[in-house]
């Protein structure tokens, strides 16, 4: 059996901003040397969680530990953490090379050769002022810092909003190649779920400030199906299964269920005239977060 080491944990975290509840009793662990997808709809609470884990904010109650310590105002712990976000600001007169020099100074595992390679890959001009970079170039700069940091715990909060499809693919490829040689823990927050579904090994899905899924991507993929057909038969078949979503269209219904479905159950579904289809990670995320209640069309 392999030993898994928890590098960060969130226990019963609550966070309010005035009358907005951003986190409502959030608990999950982050294990060493894995790639996580922190997923959820706009405003679900993903950035809030990452800010708390990276010491940029704090939970009103609950416990948050990173490498065994509270990350808040803890320089020792934070030297092992890199947080890349889309809205990163840099001093006005900074050029790309100044940002890279600062990153090299702040990040103990920084690999300059890797950074040079990535600059070339993303075609980023080192002497250009950061404020003169295009949106995509600014995203590329973030991606380069996050990758070359080789930080044991690296967060990417939707850092590729400006990147075109080819550059995003470059990011995924470089991340996977480098992760294979230099394992570390990576947390990706993204809305491009189909694009990253082969990359992420574990999914933490947040909906309205609570964790609604926390599982291995393979488990989710293999154990989630949609069942459709006459509503009464869908109801009959899904009784006893974990139903994450159900929608009704007149006398027809479609339900998304999780859990193992045996061959016997599959043939029972067929004999009931039901159709079973695999569900993509993106569909699962959408159906787990769109509406908890039954939707009627
Ligand atoms: N500084 C703040 N002041 C007031 N409300 C805030 C603040 N930061 C976050 N919130 C609120 O907390 C909730 C969670 O926001 P958060 O930024 O964590 O969501 P998110 O999942 O990262 O969303 P997105 O995918 O759109 O980036 C939202 O309702 C947001 O409006």
TrEMBL record:
SUPFAM superfamilies found in the cross-reference section: P-loop containing nucleoside triphosphate hydrolases (SSF52540)
InterPro entries documented for this protein: AAA+_ATPase, ABC_transporter-like_ATP-bd, P-loop_NTPase
Keyword Nucleotide-binding: yes
Occurrences of domain ABC transporter (ranges): 8-233
Superkingdom assignment: Bacteria
Entry keywords, A to Z: ATP-binding, Nucleotide-binding
GO molecular function: ATP binding; ATP hydrolysis activity
S-adenosyl-L-methionine recorded as keyword: no
A Pfam family this chain is assigned to: ABC_tran
Protein name: ABC transporter ATP-binding protein
